[in-house]
Design brief:
The structure is a single chain. By secondary structure, the chain is of the alpha+beta class. The protein has two domains: 9-236, no CATH class; 245-409, Jelly Rolls, CATH 2.60.120. The protein is 23% helix and 24% strand. The chain is built from six helices and 17 strands. The protein has helices at residues 9-28, 39-62, 213-233, 236-241, 263-268, 391-409, and strands at residues 72-73, 88-94, 101-106, 112-118, 141-146, 157-162, 171-172, 180-186, 196-201, 271-278, 283-290, 296-301, 316-317, 329-335, 344-346, 352-359, 368-374. The chain has a five-stranded antiparallel sheet. It starts with 8 loop residues before the first helix and ends with a helix.
């Protein structure tokens, strides 16, 4: 048997070649102006692409059948998306708003869990002429439930129904346009454990059908749009459209008047702010925030806004893992090498990147201050009671992170 013997051979080959052409085109974006022209960050751009290539067909095909839904992890230590933040996990399940689903699981001990029903994805962001973010994002939150609102038994086991007729207890309504569940969990201390989850449609019967040529062609088209979209949209889409992202030319400072905190953010269960930074080898950046109540996360990202190496490096901080100075100020230090300061954010020796702030439990409006200083004179710019660590203590911190993150992902 050879090409042309099957009735769908021509269409299948055309779809595959188009996908390969789009993948090739996506690679050209590794050299965009937003990505610094240094070896580490050029390589990281292709890593960003290849990591997402690894999930393109999981999203486009393997988990796409809403009669046989599966929960898909967007982000792992070896897979990053633009805008993801270390100390979060991100999962989704494709659904049909006309079906009823049962989500079952056991609550972990993570400090925050949010399950959101996402509606249709508009071509443009509502109220603007800006295009929506690439698939599978850009859709609009319709309703949500927080982990603290989910009723569970003494062991933490629970059922959550999605769609169908209203039910007492754990239930989320859907609309005809509802298309996915978006599940985010956020961790504070290293001892916290994840929530286990699985999903099924109540009307499912029989075995899942195998993909037809038409479904495979459709998946190739979707996957091609996904890989080109993510390379095209990050980071410029957020610079143009997000309320919490600053002007990329205003380096090393959080925007004083740009915080993502509207009705859709409330359904997402968070406030957000963002900073773009650039550091030369002989520089360090001090980021200050008055300590406040609630649960907040600072997380480092690369040029494409994907989270940095949170498995091996100190690229994120939360209240449980941060030292607050005696004057009530949280001070974080961005530097290319370890300055011996407890609250060190490792740049991975990237010349440029992003720092994102998330506030999950309160409406406290954080105020940020930043100072660019000489790396050699960093300590002179910090309070005398700044928490310091020696290499042995840093290694203990590294192992705590490594083991906790592996536990979160079951790896």
């Amino acid at each position: 048997m050879a090409f042309g013997d099957g009735p769908d051979d021509v269409l299948l080959r055309m779809a595959w070649e188009q996908f390969c052409d789009r993948l090739k085109s996506a690679g050209h974006s590794a050299f965009k102006d937003a990505n610094p022209a240094n070896p580490l960050q050029r390589a990281d751009a292709f890593r960003f692409l290849t990591q997402n290539l690894g999930q393109a067909f999981d999203l486009a095909l393997e988990t796409r059948d809403t009669a046989f839904p599966q929960i898909h992890p967007f982000v792992t230590p070896t897979r990053k998306l633009g805008g993801d933040v270390a100390d979060f996990t991100y999962r989704q399940a494709w659904i049909d708003g006309n079906r009823t689903y049962r989500l079952t699981g056991r609550k972990g001990t993570a400090r925050w869990l949010n399950i959101t029903v996402q509606g249709p994805r508009p071509e443009t962001i509502p109220g603007t002429d800006w295009p929506s973010l690439h698939e599978p994002f850009g859709d609009i939150p319709e309703c949500n439930i927080l982990g603290t609102q989910i009723e569970a038994d003494a062991r933490g086991d629970f059922e959550l129904f999605v769609g169908g007729e209203p039910r007492p207890g754990n239930w989320l309504p859907t609309t005809p346009g509802s298309r996915k569940l978006f599940i985010r969990e956020a961790f504070d201390g290293w001892d916290e454990t994840p929530t286990s989850l699985t999903i099924e449609a109540l009307d499912t019967a029989g075995a899942k059908p195998l993909p037809t040529p038409a479904k495979m062609i459709e998946a190739m088209d979707w996957a091609g749009a996904f890989v080109t979209g993510l390379m095209h949209d990050w980071p410029e889409h957020s610079w143009l459209t997000s309320r919490g992202v600053c002007d990329p030319h205003a380096l090393g400072a959080f925007p004083p008047d740009r915080t993502a905190n509207d009705a859709s953010d409330a359904k997402r269960g968070r406030m957000a702010a963002h900073m773009v930074w650039r550091l030369e080898p002989d520089e360090a950046l001090i980021v200050e925030m008055d300590a406040h109540s609630g649960f907040w996360i600072f997380g480092m990202g690369g040029a494409f806004m994907g989270s940095m190496d949170f498995l091996h490096r100190p690229v994120s901080y939360t209240p449980a893992r941060t030292r607050v100075d005696g004057d009530g100020v949280v001070r974080l230090v961005l530097a290319h090498d370890d300055p011996g300061v407890h609250n060190w954010l490792d740049t991975q020796r990237f010349r440029e990147g992003n720092l994102t702030y998330r506030n999950l439990l309160t409406q406290d409006a954080a105020r940020f201050r930043t100072r660019l200083v000489s790396r050699n004179r960093l300590i002179e710019h910090l309070p005398a009671d700044t928490a310091l660590v020696d290499p042995a203590e840093r290694e203990v911190m590294r192992l705590e992170r490594y083991r906790a993150v592996k536990r979160r992902y079951g790896i």
